């Protein structure tokens, strides 16, 4: 298959260019807001609280994502030209950095509202995968973060990646870390769960899905494979998520049993 050449600029208004990548992030926040409004009454959240959280979360995603990318994946290039950090339309957002930025936003929002950290994270976690899915679609439109050379029927020849067809790993991530993770978390959180269990499941399942996709995704060229000719920086960063998510769920259910038995 040939990559469907999509202009990364969705709309040009004179000197102003609106990129699909940026629009995907905007759509992600819109969908999270809509889903949050749907969930808010059940969790005793007010609309203005949801909107404040999304505002802080958006800042955390953008700042954390860009700083995380600079720190984890492209430190030397960004030190040479710090203004690159402002060019989010060109891609270069680290999920792990964005996650850290969002966690800081949760902490700050909790300080202001009196809500506990896990009360916030359990509420928002089931909605996050929709934004992740749209972000990966933005990567696909940009023709970046492609996969390894492959002969599967749906492999694509990406511009700038040579003449050989490759795994469309961006779409794998959109399907697994986005759509499927959303379904898992939405169904899991439909029933009352111990505090922190939903957040733990998010970390665990996202980490597993991302770790798996990294096997068919080309690693960042500045790092390549870190060991064994397959271990990537993305997988290294996912290991604490998998371990932490599993430990968080075990802790949540153990504490719940202790509470119920007195």
Automatic annotation (TrEMBL):
GO biological process, one term: lipoprotein biosynthetic process
Primary residence: membrane
Pathway the protein acts in: Protein modification; lipoprotein biosynthesis (diacylglyceryl transfer)
This enzyme's EC code(s): 2.5.1.145
UniProt GO MF annotations: phosphatidylglycerol-prolipoprotein diacylglyceryl transferase activity
Keywords, in A-Z order: Cell membrane, Lipoprotein, Membrane, Transferase, Transmembrane, Transmembrane helix
Annotated binding of a 1,2-diacyl-sn-glycero-3-phospho-(1'-sn-glycerol), by residue: 136
Pfam families (alphabetical): LGT
Record's function text: Catalyzes the transfer of the diacylglyceryl group from phosphatidylglycerol to the sulfhydryl group of the N-terminal cysteine of a prolipoprotein, the first step in the formation of mature lipoproteins.
Family classification: Belongs to the Lgt family.
Protein name as catalogued: Phosphatidylglycerol--prolipoprotein diacylglyceryl transferase
The organism of origin for this protein: Methylophaga thiooxydans DMS010
Taxonomic path: Bacteria, Pseudomonadati, Pseudomonadota, Gammaproteobacteria, Thiotrichales
